[in-house]
Amino acid sequence: MMRDRVVLGLSMAAGMVGGTLAGFLLAGTPVMAQEGAGPERKIVSAEEFRLVDKAGAVRALISFSGAGDPYLQLTDRKGVDRVWLGVATETGLAVRDVTTKTRVLLSLGPDGDPSLVLRNRQHKARLFTPE
Hints:
Mean pLDDT: 76
Number of helices: 1
Number of strands: 8
Shape: flat
Largest sheet: 8 strands, antiparallel
Structural class: alpha+beta
CATH topology of the domain at 44-128: Outer Surface Protein A, domain 3
CATH class of the domain at 44-128: Alpha Beta
Helix content: 10-25%
Order of helices and strands: HEEEEEEEE
């Protein structure tokens, strides 16, 4: 019985000494994932950025369309895409209501002329173009 206690004590002491030595001998030097100087450290590059809320739902998106044009999309709490801003042939800025109907549409035509369309709840539209 006494012999068992001695063996147990020596085993515990050897484990502590071995763990301490391993920590000192195997410890490495901390490194940074991307170390650099100058303006490169302030640039983040990606093909898509997603802003998610606490529940994990995407609320804002900066990405590319299928045609490769960049856009920004903002989504409300109910998951309705409310604001779209991008580079496209038809639309520059679209603002939608909670029913997903477009209420404001700002665009540039193929000839480069801007237009603004405003729609009310009955979906009656008013077009504004420069004279």
